[in-house]
Amino acid sequence: MSKEAEIILDGKSYKFPVIEGSEGEMAIDIAKLRDLTGYVTLDTGYKNTGATKSAITFLDGEKGILRYRGYPIEQLASKASFLEVSYLLIYGELPTTSQLEIFKDRIMKHTNLHEDIKKIFDGFPSSAHPMGVLSSAVSSLTAYYPGSIDQNANDEEVDLTIVRLMAKLPTIAAWSYRNSKGQPLMYPKPKLGYCENFLYMMFGHPNEDFTLDPVVVEALNTLFILHADHEQNCSTSTVRIVGSAHASLYSSIAAGINALWGPLHGGANQEVIEMLEEIQASGISTKDYIAKVKTKEVRLMGFGHRVYKNFDPRANIIKKACDDILNKLGVNDPALAIAKELEQAALSDPYFVERKLYPNVDFYSGIIYKALGLRSDLFTVMFAIGRLPGWIAQWKELRDAKEPIGRPRQIYTGYTERDYVSIEKRK
After folding, report:
1. What pLDDT digit, counting tens, does each position of 360-391 carry?
2. Which of 76, 131, 141, 168 has a CA positioned 20 to 30 A from the CA of residue 278?
3. Exactly one of 362, 377, 400, 419 is catalytic; which is it?
């Protein structure tokens, strides 16, 4: 017998079906609530609202579980390539050897950008934040590929749009970075792997040989996998709600990039480094800064998580990559030394342990990007590249399910009806 939830309003009883997800998650289906009762629910921030049914990512914050299409994040991060995980998220299953080769070849053939896109980069001041440049350039792809907005596009045409975006986003990111530094643009090398090609475009020089460090490549591969999807977060929900208006993939992803730009979302790893540099500049000891955290005089960025109430499973994975990078590169940076001291304090101090304020993925990813020599304003761009296949998968799932346009309700708290007052009579 199926479960039901009963709501009693004004002495009248209404029953609504209870649905259960494949991992035992329970929800009350209130799709007909307003039609039957005239009431809506109020859930500011959507903390208790399931906006959709999805088969892409399962997250249990209380138990510290993260799975893509059923596969534990720990297994994927240690055994898979980023393109394997991208294929899994977008198409639903891990690829065979031939499927992965075809997917990789198709992506690498589309990595070049139209030469006119250079004019977009030139139109921004060198001080422009890379996320603003990234979202603008992605949105502009609709102009270069107008077929992407065709509502009658078949599956092959939609798939070509997906492949193009997977291919071009790293090139856009690398070119915007180099343009901001006044460096010559590096064209993609299709024979390289996805992560290798991105590193080449970011750090290579036309008059020098470029050697890829396998430790750096592996760390970037791991970071991209860890960021690839994270259920219905702010930017993913943005991609879905924009996509529900039948906006193109490029427009929807550009909206997601802008949402990710927010310091409460993807900008957190940038804030970690800014915090470390502030500690360094102030001359305060790590011990004294921790004391200020306990008295709530300052915030400790990169610790704890809104969803994970136990630990962030991604942090355990990326910690090893972080240690490998620091050991391999031998970086002697005072800010990174402060980070290690903060990490040890948080893992051993009862104040943090009792509150489960463990270092999260933003903490370690920020340290890695700084060790690689990246400016802090580029950190969120790196996040966006990793999150791209998840956004695409969510957009595709919404489209395939023919979900209706997103249209939340509200509780109006403004003035009731009042009459217009001519300007000469207003006080």
Report:
1. 888 888 888 888 888 888 999 999 999 999 99
2. 131
3. 362
Give the separation between CA 204 and CA 219, rounded to whole angstroms: 18
The burial of 408, by beta-carbon neighbours within 10 Å (0-12 exposed, 13-18 middle, 19 or more buried), is given as exposed
Residue of 229, 305, 312, 377 marked catalytic = 305
If one counts every other C-beta atom within 10 angstroms of the C-beta of residue 61, the result is: 16
Verdict on whether the full-model pTM lies above 0.90: yes
**Is 305 tagged catalytic?**
yes
pLDDT tens digits for range 389-424: 999 999 999 999 999 999 999 999 999 999 999 999
Is 362 marked active-site? yes
Task: Please determine, for residue 304, whether its predicted confidence score (pLDDT) is greater than 90.
Answer: no
Q: Do 397 and 56 touch, CB atoms closer than 8 A?
A: yes
- Sheet containing strand 71-72, edge to edge, reads 57-60, 65-68, 71-72
Burial (Cβ within 10 Å: 0-12, 13-18, ≥19) of residue 315: buried
Q: How would you label 362-377 residue by residue, b for 16+ Cβ within 10 Å and e otherwise?
A: bbbbbbbbbbbebebb
